[in-house]
Amino acid sequence: MRSLFRKYSFIIILSAILPLFSGCSTGVEGTKTIRMTKTERRELMPSAEQVFVADMKSDPLSDWQQGKRFLVSDEKAAVVLRSTDGSSDNLKGAVLIYNKVESRRTPAGAEEAVILFSGNGRELRYSTGRSIADSYKELTASDVPMLIDLDLVDKALRLLTGKKVWTMSNLWYDADGNIARGVKYVPVTITGVQPGDKVFPLLVSFKDASGSEFGMWMSVRNDGNQASAGASRWFGNLFSLSDPRLGHQEIDDAVWELICTGKVREGMTKEECRLSLGNPDEVDSGHDWNSTLDIWRYQNGTFLRFQDGKLANFRN
Question: What is the DSSP letter of 290?
Answer without folding.
Answer: S
